[in-house]
Write a structure and sequence with these properties.
497 residues, alpha/beta, Arc Repressor Mutant, subunit A, Aspartate Aminotransferase, domain 1, 3 domains, eight-stranded mixed beta sheet, four-stranded mixed beta sheet, 14 strands, 40% helix, globular
């Protein structure tokens, strides 16, 4: 599939026109062999061209990009030398990763920056999440210790989730205006697993899925790995154009739509109620499953916390049957506590649990036990967390005004980051140069559905202490003012959250 969507076809082959359509304009304008090799390497690293896919024959690609066959041959030679493709006589040239190279999204999970665990891990502005509140996990462990002896006498398998935790999540939805029973909740290992399970159950290879653009980068990765066709609805600093959104949904009739209406990641926008009603109506009319990501819904800094989008459904406050709501404790408490959930009809939850059992049986009972008092105390503990974030947001704004007054942004009413406009398309190259100085950042293109988009943007979280934020912005500004090339960078993408 072209136009920036993942190429992962049934016969594992990408055509020459498909690949040419995914290449940056500057490469097509002046197709040198090094630039061509770098562009293909970036497509592989970003997951837009999947692994173990056969590339076009040299002559075919040369015709498609307007280059000589010698140029394409030299580009393929470079890719072979660096380990990004392999060739066998008679079977063509296939994409792969070099030995020891981590796949996109994995190398930062080990610890430290880029998987390092040294004493100076650098400044991580790619992760829009905070550390756990001081003492909160120790207190939660102490409060659940008395329950362990009884639980350890059982097999410990709870495919739907620990009953008490399901009840607590359901009760929280109910208090927020969406009546929910425990059997409508599936506890998962974080919101990302929740989304992966939903995709696995509701979608098949080749199905069309619509997301916002920009959107959460790891969701795009999940859709690409599932071999889905992705369409997009534009979201700007000022929000959604619902006229275009409705037109897109009616014309494409997608199997599923994924949205982040509450403090959208990465823009921070908050969808007004009138637009929520229109979104519910059009997805119901097109028979589209609507997946609502509430992972950041509690991070309301300047406005009241929004009610669940599904609570606006037509069934007297019980929610719309075609809406699935996912959430987690990663942003309010700690990403290391892998506890998330899906809220849907009880029938759909039973089907999701069946998919989940085939994948990992069930989640950790210990993690779910720890999550229970944290969730029960959330309304008491959250105000201090939000006040800390307001201070760190103000520190980020002050740092940007001091070090990069030429950059611009909209102050979001909630969420965890600013979506910063650099004024010129240098995001990837700037991220690469900043990484060399020890600052890791979510370049704009990681959040775009289509290739080359949002090269003028950076997502900068305000989840670090003020002094670390200021040092990170200072180093970013230094890299920017030293001058960065206009062509996108080709370094491997850094994992974001």
């Amino acid at each position: 599939m072209a136009n920036g969507r993942v190429v992962h076809t049934a016969d594992r082959t990408i055509g020459s026109r498909q690949l040419a359509a995914m290449l940056p304009a500057e490469v097509l304008a002046r197709p040198g062999y090094r630039a061509l090799a770098d562009a293909v390497r970036t497509l592989i690293l970003d997951g837009r061209v999947a692994l173990h896919v056969r590339l076009p024959a040299e002559r075919e690609l040369a015709e498609a990009v307007g280059a000589s066959r010698a140029t394409v041959t030299s580009a393929y030679d470079l890719l072979r030398e660096s380990g990004y493709v392999r060739s066998r006589r008679g079977s063509g040239t296939w994409t792969e990763l070099p030995d020891g190279h981590d796949p996109v999204g994995a190398h930062a999970l080990i610890g430290g920056i880029g998987g390092r665990a040294d004493d100076d891990p650098g400044i991580d502005l790619a992760i829009a999440a905070m550390g756990a509140p001081e003492g909160s996990l120790a207190d939660a462990l102490a409060r659940i210790a008395h329950r362990l002896p009884l639980l350890t006498r059982t097999p410990g398998y709870h495919p739907f989730g620990l009953p008490d935790l399901r009840a607590a999540v359901a009760e929280r939805f109910t208090r927020r205006g969406l009546p929910t029973r425990p059997e409508q909740i599936l506890v998962t290992a974080g919101a990302q697993q929740a989304f992966a399970l939903v995709v696995s159950l509701l979608c098949g290879p080749g199905d069309r899925v619509v997301t916002e653009s920009p959107t959460y980068a790891n969701v795009l990765d999940a859709l690409r790995h599932a071999r889905l066709r992705t369409g997009s609805i534009a979201v700007s600093d000022t929000g959604w154009d619902m006229d275009i959104a409705e037109s897109t949904l009616r014309q494409t009739v997608p199997r599923m739509a994924y949205v982040i209406p509450d403090f959208h990641n990465p823009t921070g926008a908050l969808m007004p109620e009138e637009q929520r009603l229109r979104l519910l109506a059009v997805t119901r009319a097109t028979g589209t499953w609507l997946v609502v990501d509430e992972t950041i819904a509690d991070i309301a800094l300047d406005v009241p916390r929004p009610a669940p989008l599904a609570s606006l459904g037509p069934r007297a406050g019980t929610g719309a049957d075609h809406v699935l709501t996912i959430g987690s404790l990663s942003k309010t408490h700690w990403g290391g506590l892998r506890v998330g959930w899906v809220r849907a009809s009880s029938k759909l939850i039973t089907e999701l649990a069946g998919v989940r059992v085939a994948a990992d049986m069930c989640g950790s009972v210990l993690d779910q036990l720890v999550a229970l008092p944290l969730l029960e105390d959330l309304d008491r503990s959250l105000p201090a967390r939000l006040e800390q974030l307001r201070g760190q947001r103000a520190a980020l704004v002050a740092s940007l005004q001091r070090h990069t007054p030429e950059w611009s942004w909209q102050l979001p009413p909630g969420g965890l980051s600013l979506w910063v406009d650099l004024g010129e398309p240098v995001s990837s190259a700037l991220a690469e140069r900043a990484a060399a100085a020890g600052v890791h950042i979510g370049r704009g293109a990681r959040f775009g559905v289509d290739p080359g988009t949002f090269e003028h943007r950076l997502r900068i979280p305000y989840t670090l202490p003020a002094d670390r934020i200021d040092e990170g912005v200072r180093l970013l500004a230094q890299a920017f003012h030293d001058g960065v090339p206009l062509a996108p960078g080709v370094d491997r993408p850094y994992w974001v959250a």
